[in-house]
Structure formats: C-alpha cells, structure tokens
C-alpha cells in the first residue's frame, strides 16, 4: 500500500444512543473516537494514507434511522469507513447489529474476532457485546460498544489494519497491495506477527514507535538486523566464581544464569516490587494516569429525576386526544414546579424535569396551537393530536443510565484522559476516590564506556553515548510518572 502521495480515507462516526440523541452534551464517544483516529494518523507509516473524519452524527436507537444514515454515507457519500457506537448489547432497544447486518454486502468476521479477542483480555463481560463488521459498496462498517472506554479499546485493536481493508473495499488491486508479501503489509500497518520467536531486532522508527526487541541479542545500533549470538560449544560445568571483580581466569566461561523471556522478566520484576501505597485523590484532571485501588459505585442515580427526551408537552397519558390548557412551563433548569392535574398540560423542553403528576410527554410535532395570547407570544391551549400514548412515553426514567449502587469502575482500572472515566465519576457526584500512588522511577546508566549523549567532545575509541537513559526518562514522563535522573555509574 505504499505510495508517493497521501491517500485520504474518509470516516463517518455514528453515535447510536437515545440518551445522547436527546441531549448531545451527554455524548463522550465522538471525542473519544476522534482522539483514537488522531493518534492513528500520528503513527501512520510513510504518510501513505490519512484518516479524515467527514461526518459526525448522533441518532437514537432506531433501526430505520440507523439504516437511513448508513445508506446515505455508503451509497451517496462513499465514505471509506463508518464506525458506529452503541446499541450492541442485549437491551430491547439495542438494534445496531441487526440494522447494520441487513445493509452489508460482505461480512468481516475477522474484524469482529479481533475486537472480541482484544476486549476479552480486559474484561470477561466483553462476551456480552454483539459487534458486526463488513462492507457495503466501497465502505467498511464496524460497530463498537456504547461505552466510550469499550469503543476506544475495540477501535484501537483494529485501527492499524483498517486502511488495508478500506483500500481493498474501494477497489484496490489485491495483487499490487500484496506484492510485497505479508511482512511488508505488517511493516506498513505498524503491526507484527505474533507467531514464532524472532531472532532479530531493529532500532528503526516504524509507525511512530520503536520496534520491540527480544530478550536475547540486545545491542546498540540503528537500522541493522543480526542473529542473537549463540555459543557453539558446551563447557564442562566446572564450578567457578561469580565475582566479576575477581580474576578473569576464575570466572565462568559461560553465564551460570539462565536466559529468561521478556514475559518472565516482567513477572519476576512484578513479584519483587513492593505493594503500592493507596492514596485518596480528587476527581479532576489531575487524576489521569492513576490506577483505581477500589471498586467505584454510583452515589446517585442518573438521571436523578424523570426527564423529557423531546421538546413538547407534559401530559397525563390517559387524557387522550383533545384540547387542553397550558398551565406551566418546564425548562432544563432547577426549580419548583406546580403539580399537573388531569386535563392540564405543561410545555416542556428536552432534558427538563417532568412536572409532578405528569406521566408522559407528547412531541411538539404531534400538537397544534388551539389558542394563543393576544400578542401571539404564548400558547394558552394546545390540541393533542397523538392517540394511544403510553405511560412514560418520551421520558427518561430515574436511574435509566445508572442507578445508585451500580458498579461504575472496577479496582485496577486506569483513569485515562479520553476514556470518559473522569466524566463518569463526576456525573454521579463522586469527588474523591482511592488510587494507587504513582511510582517514582530512577534511571541509572552503568558502564565505563558510557558517556553523556550531549557531551561536545568527539567519541574516543570504545566510548558509547548514553541513549538509553534519555529514552527511558522520556517514556516514563510520557506515562505521567515521576522520573529521577541518576546519571551514569562507572563499573566499580
């Protein structure tokens, strides 16, 4: 897929949520997914393509509306990729997979498997999601869960491979695309095969990051590949000293310590690290990067009151069709409201609390002004045209998003800047939580041959500039941890 020019891959973000459709201010998915795509653009290899978000829409959990938007974006606007969030669970209103499946020309079970496999490493509840992926016309479509955190994790698990899918779906020549072989495709996507043990390493910058190194064969260099050094003979196992300060003739000819894998090394380090101190932190921007030391449950229900999801009129649903006096107005603002009696209605705005006594909301589109004030600025009587209203129609019930005591975040979860955790905690009135204190990391380079990287003098024979220490210090700081520069220690 390499190219001398940058190919724009257009994206549509479709948020499927009754709640967000009623009040766009409650949506966190658009910002979350936009950040994931921006990060993907920053890691693109050779600027061969670029994601460009052309459409962002929020719609309710309505099958017809979902299909209408997808049809427009695929058939008329020919977007490269459509990403939906929400409606993939088991609730009665969750219809996104059904809506999307009927629109697909081809299914992409591999993308679905990739997302589920990635999510199951994080939580067993990922099995409760019902993702769908496939192609319609020239457009790749992927459905993500409604949780901003889950949507972020799912999209991150496949985002590097989606350009390949989008280019093929749009008619790219498969022979040309695959001409460099699988390794070339992996290199361009910035991913690596998980099969087999690599006996080489690379210090080349690829896709915005350094290629990872195996435990064996770690040496300095740039842009080279070599086999891990392996002894050709076996020593007799004669016992010798492990003291590296002793005479050379008394040392082991081969290391008495077995080589361990990176995974095993991580495990050993984790076993030796003392338990982190638990501290209390305020719920604000300074919480980013901390790990929860407790399960967190909702202190309040959301919403805390019955709220309208449309502009219209609060009514007693059993009153039926007819002309009724408007006795009050309910705005999305705090304040006392006069109870509504049978035969009365009140004007109400989206997100506003339902007046006491009201049992449903009629959309303004289903009404007609029967009588107005003399100056024509206010309605006095409204004719209700819609029949068969049900109790709590067009109403968000108390706790419909979350109820008091619901589990919000589990112990061990990371508080991120874009995953929505801070907003979630704030929405239920949590002002302080227990987290693990961030570690302070010291970085020390050792070796007689190591010299500061910023030393002006030319290198002498045998000297090596210290590149590991500034690299590690930068990586630690980037993760939000305090890094202490311990300098260079000689072999003494």
UniProtKB/TrEMBL annotation:
Report the family membership: In the C-terminal section; belongs to the MoeA family.
User: Which cofactor is essential here?
Assistant: Mg(2+)
Q: Which UniProt keywords apply?
A: Magnesium, Metal-binding, Molybdenum, Molybdenum cofactor biosynthesis, Transferase
Q: Which InterPro entries match?
A: MoaB/Mog-like_dom_sf, MoaB/Mog_dom, MoCF_biosynth_CS, MoeA-like, MoeA_linker/N, MoeA_linker/N_sf
Protein's UniProt name = MoaB/Mog domain-containing protein
Report the record's Gene Ontology biological process terms.
Mo-molybdopterin cofactor biosynthetic process
User: PROSITE patterns from the xrefs?
Assistant: MOCF_BIOSYNTHESIS_1
Against SMART domains, the record matches this protein to: MoCF_biosynth
> Which terms does the record give in the GO molecular function aspect?
ATP binding; metal ion binding; molybdopterin adenylyltransferase activity; molybdopterin molybdotransferase activity
Region described as Disordered: 215-256
Q: What does it catalyze?
A: molybdopterin + ATP + H(+) = adenylyl-molybdopterin + diphosphate; adenylyl-molybdopterin + molybdate = Mo-molybdopterin + AMP + H(+)
Q: Where is the MoaB/Mog domain?
A: 12-165
Q: In which pathway does it act?
A: Cofactor biosynthesis; molybdopterin biosynthesis
Mind telling me which CDD domains this protein's record contains?
Answer: MoeA, MogA_MoaB
Cited function? Catalyzes two steps in the biosynthesis of the molybdenum cofactor. In the first step, molybdopterin is adenylated. Subsequently, molybdate is inserted into adenylated molybdopterin and AMP is released.
